[in-house]
Each structure stands twice: as structure tokens, then as C-alpha cells.
Amino acid sequence: MTDAEKFQQSLRQAQREALQKIGHASELEGLEKIRIKYLGRKGIITSLLRSLNDFPENERPALGKLSNQIKKQLEEILARRTNQLREGKTARRREEDFFDYTLPGRKGWCGKLHPLTQINDRIVEIFYGMGFEVAKGPDVETDHYNFSALNFPKDHPARDMQDTFYIDQDLLLRTHTSPVQVRVFEKRKPPVKIIAPGRCYRNEAINARSFCTFHQVEGFYVDTDVTFADLKGVLSAFVKELFGQDVALRFRASFFPFTEPSAEVDISCVICGGNGCSVCKHRGWLEILGAGMIDPEVFKAVGYDPEIFSGYAFGMGVERIAMLKYGVDDIRLFFENDLRFLRQF
Ligand code: PHE
User: From the CA of 194, how far away is ligand 1's center (Å)?
Assistant: First the structure.
């Protein structure tokens, strides 16, 4: 191969390489590097052009012409590509920088707890502060824990199919949280001071005041000298903590198979302050829970000696308390999950 042929080959190869690299370049900096490598002062093509002086006079014009053609081609393509990249970049930047200050703001979304969960947590927290531990029991219960062990006679109306969702002869959906009492008593010796929140089920006609599922918080305390005065004290402290110091309590004699004596506890109406309104049906009082001293029959069934131990228990409806606290007049709203309702809490 003659020197002239070698020169041409080097030139063509540099051209091929440079074109390929320009095609791949996606940044202005990259293009500049290519320009320097091939066309810069010490660039490959520039050096080749400089070496033309070494060739005999008669060979120079042809080689020089080819060199200049290639040089010019690369310069043109580099310039075109540089312009393209520059335009793309500014177009993108214009879009990114655009901000319409007249647009109304967009509110961020933030998840939060369901109002029932909030009230449930608050109730548990208040009792936790008074030394109660938290316990839980299953939603699917046996007849034994839900009824028999709680001293419900076999023919008690609460066992009626109309109230209880039975799964089979023996299994049912618990109708209250009181079975947790029995489950704890079976496992522990007094003193026990427990709060047991959970979901309950009753096969009731659905309306603004009752739903097929709801929540209760059960509380109970068993020790050697627990009295009804302790029960009054703890419930009074709880009610005042939750609804405010001005709220009054009233204990009405009542009946539950698993407590004796039993009471239903009313608070002065938190809506009208006791003057009478539609929520309290002009009575001035609202029932919020059932309570009493745990029946000796319940103790006997779990092996606690009723001569040594005494205890109180109470159970409250979370929905009822949430309705009073938030002024909600239809229990079904808590279960429909309409965001327009839920976002208010
Ligand atoms: N379990 C009762 C109910 O669901 C409430 C209650 C609990 C009453 C504890 C007394 C003691 O109605």
C-alpha cells in the first residue's frame, strides 16, 4: 500500500468513526468532545491535513481536496446536531419552568382513622391511664362463652335466633364483649383489671339506632375488696374525661344475668345539657352503658371463690358514644364508608 493510500484509509476511518459518534451523542458536551477529538487543533483530521506537507507536490491536491471535503462534512453535521440538541433542551426547559401562579391550590390527601376507631382508641386510652390492661377475644364464639358461662339460663330470650347470628348449634357471632371476661378469668387469677374492645353482632332490624354489627368496650376489675363504689368512681372519672367535667351520671337499677346488682348508666344529655331535646327524647338523660357487680355464679364457673373475690364489670357501645360525641344521628353512617361523611372527622 502506498503512503497516499494509507493516508486515504486513515482519513476514511476517522470519518466513519466520527459520524458514528455524532449519531450516538445525546448531550452537547459529548458533541464538543467529538469535535475536539477529530477537528480540534490536535485532532485526528487536523493532524492528517498537517501531514500533507510530507507528500510529493503532485499528490497533494487530490489528498488535500478529499481531506477538506471530509472536514467540511463533519463540521456541517456537528453544527446541525448541536443546533438540534440545543433546541430540544430549551424546549424542555421552557416546559419545566412554566408555572401558572393563577391556578387554585390542590389539597393534599391524607388518610386518617375511622371515627369509630378514634373513639374506641380514646376510650381504651382513658382506661389504660387508670391501670386497665387490654385483652381481646374472638368474634366467633361458642354458646358457652357468650351465654352459659355468663349465667344466661337455657331459655333466656337473648339466646333467641332473632337476636343471635348462629353459625351452628354451638357456634355464634358474639352478641357482646362479656365473653372476654370468662376467657380472662379462666387463664388468670385475681387481681385482674381489664379493658376489652371488640366487634359484636346482633340480628336486629336495621334502622337509625341499631345495626347488625357494632362495637363494645368491656371493662372489669376483680380483686379482694372491689365494691360498687369503685365502679361508680371509675365510670364517673371516665365519663368526665371523655365528655367534660360538667356531665352528670345516673345509675338506674337494671338486670343482666352475669351481674348482681346491675345498673344502666345514663349521662346528662350532652346535646341540650339536660334541658330536654330530640336526642334525649326530652328526658334530659342518655343511656351509655350497662354495668354491675359480677354475679357469684360467673365466678364459680371459672373457679374464683366468691367469698374471697368480688368485682365489677361494665360494657359500653362505641357507636352510641361516637354518635353523642360527634352529634351523628344515624348509626348506619359509620358503616357506609361514604367519604363525604368520613372526611369530617
Ligand atoms: N354485655 C352487656 C350488653 O351487651 C353489657 C354489660 C357488660 C352489662 C358488663 C353489665 C356488665 O348489653
Answer: 14
Q: What is the largest CA-CA distance in the chain?
A: 131
In this structure, the dihedral spanned by the alpha carbons of residues 203, 207, 210 and 215, taken in order and rounded to 10 degrees, is: 90
The Å distance, Cα 257 to ligand 1 centre, comes to: 9
Task: Find the residues whose C-beta lies inside 6 A of ligand 1.
Answer: 176, 178, 218, 256, 259, 290-292, 313-315
- Write down the pTM of the prediction: 0.70
Domain boundaries, the chain: 3-97, 115-342
How many other CB atoms sit within 10 Å of the CB of residue 109?
6
Residue range 115-342, CATH number: 3.30.930.10
- Give tens-digit pLDDT for 41-92: 999 999 999 999 899 999 999 999 999 999 999 999 999 888 888 887 766 6
pLDDT digits (tens, 9 = 90+) for 212-239: 999 999 999 999 999 999 999 999 999 9
